[in-house]
Amino acid sequence: MSATILPTDAPAAVPHLSVAERVARGKAARAEVPRSSHAKYEPASRRVDPVKVLASQARTRVPELVPIRYGRMLVSPFTFYRGAAAIMAADLAATPRSGLSVQCCGDAHLSNFGVFASPERQLMFDVNDFDETLPGPWEWDVKRLAVSMLIAARDNDFSAKAQDQVVLETVEEYRTAMAGFAAMNNLDVWYSHLDIEAALGELGSQLKPEQVKRTEKALAKARTKDSMSAFSKLTQVVDGEPRIVAEPPLIVPIHDLAQGVERDEMFETLHELVRSYRETLEYDRRVLLEEFQLTDIARKVVGVGSVGTRAWIALMLGRDGQDPLFLQLKEAEASVLEEHLGPSEFANHGQRVVTGQRLMQTSSDIFLGWLHVVEGIDGGDRDFYARQLKDWKGSAEIERMKPSGLAAYGRLCGWTLARAHARSGDRIAIAAYLGKGTAFDRAIVEFSRDYAEQNERDYRALSDAVASGRIVAQTGL
User: Fold this and answer.
1) Structural domain includes residue 12
2) For 12-41, what is each residue's pLDDT tens digit?
3) What CA–CA distance (Å, rounded) separates 155 from 86?
4) Is residue 350 assigned to a domain?
5) Cα(147)–Cα(167) distance, rounded to whole angstroms?
6) Radius of gyration over alpha carbons of the chain, in Å?
7) Are 254 and 170 within one domain?
8) H-helix or E-strand containing 328?
9) End of a domain among 388, 418, 452?
């Protein structure tokens, strides 16, 4: 029998530790970085001005859209937190690290979880935003999620006891779920998913009847959010052809951005981008996409933290004028974690986002892909990722939740984040680090209290910067 000689640039061998060795690894990490150490948050003596961090991000964004970002962040301390991932990443970099890494979401606040359709047309609950994804410390994601729970509880005027309880149940669910995944076989972990309707059945007894009814109504509404519903809301017929309706500055069709020959050239440039993006899809999805014809394109403002990055929506039609597909092409910049953890292994940030999403999600959009633009319509080289604009997508109405409802939602998020981390990290070592007690849970409650106060100070700093004229914010959009 002859041996196969691997080329010198073959990937390095992957170490396979025994269960006992992985448990020992987690306990050793706990000894070096005690769980109680995660309770501490103290601002660095030379902490960067949070407004400067936001202004630095604005340099690469569409200038006329940046005031909208500031305006959306000023709605409340919670919306500020949604847009402050870069600020918190810098703060987390100074906190203790267990040394155990996973594929991090990078921005795992509670509004970045939600429902969407799987390719099998089931409603799934999962993490749904990966703009900042990067391999990193699992505890950074847990802390970002926990603090978002506490800030939301504060915004809803919960008592201090109820605020702590929401965070405690969120982190406890992460810990116990990770222990469950640590005991599972590899394929069972990979196939694990959260069917939201089944989860609602299990949680129903813990929720008040009106909460169950409201959730069921939200799920029914999510099923209506697809390309056909977007088609009816975002388009109108012009000269016999469907066109995206202008809603400036939030939606600006290409024919409003340029006219005549310039408009035609811009459209063809964007059309070429759609063609190049197809090459990153699986072959069967590429064949399906090629059955649709590009009809119209518009720039669209999305989210809170993402406002100002370049985002396009593309209207495509299939067998006839009533067979629409809306794609969203969203700019992908460097993750906010990269400054503190090192650059991504992917040269294309769109690929970084897509790879991280596929690794963390149980089921991803069938049209998820990426592309690179060289000297685009505004002259810059940029990375993008693409996906369907709407596919049964829905999010929780946090502001209407009572303490028991937010705690139940926190448990859903905690389980989901643990499952996402278990797919890429050493789940056995992480579970061993966390242990069976509540030491880590209680530490994160304390951290969340302190960081929520920091978030309040940063929110006021942005408000003061607007009041002084240092920056300009556009509200109500």
Assistant:
1) no
2) 788 899 999 999 999 999 999 999 999 999
3) 22
4) yes
5) 8
6) 23
7) no
8) strand 324-331
9) 388
Please name the amino acid found at residue 315.
L
Instruction: Select from 392, 348, 391 the least CA-distant residue to 370.
Output: 348
pLDDT, one tens digit per residue, over 124-168 is 789 999 999 999 999 999 999 999 999 999 999 999 999 999 999
For residues 423 and 361, membership in a common domain is answered with no
209 contacts: CB under 8 Å, gap ≥ 6: none
Place of tokens 């660095």: 44
**Contact between residue 105 and residue 141 where contact means Cβ atoms under 8 Å apart:** yes
Residue 10 is assigned to a structural domain of this protein: no
> Among the listed ranges 145-159, 193-207, 294-308, 450-464, which one has the minimum average pLDDT value?
193-207
Residues 350-394 pLDDT 10s: 999 999 999 999 988 999 999 998 877 677 889 999 999 875 566
Parent domain of 436: 19-223+397-467
Which pLDDT value is given to residue 1? Answer: 43
* Token digits of residue 457: 């100070």
Distance of alpha carbon 145 from alpha carbon 88, whole angstroms: 12
Contact predicate 100/426, CB 8 Å: yes
Residues 6+ apart with CB under 8 A from 14: none
Share in percent of the chain as helix, strand, coil (round to 5): 50, 15, 35
- Give me 41's structure tokens: 């948050």
Consecutive H or E run containing 373: strand 369-373
**In a shared domain, residues 162 and 241:** no
Task: Give a yes or no: residue 472 inside a domain.
Answer: no
What pLDDT digit, counting tens, does each position of 251-268 carry?
999 989 888 888 888 888
217 confidence band (pLDDT: 50, 70, 90): low
Task: Output the six-digit token pair for 320.
Answer: 């006839």
Task: Give the C-alpha separation, 151 to 147, whole Å.
Answer: 6
Cα 52 to Cα 250, 270, 453, 460, distances in angstroms: 25, 33, 19, 14
Residues 181 and 33 in one domain: yes
Angstrom distance (rounded) from CA 40 to CA 96: 9
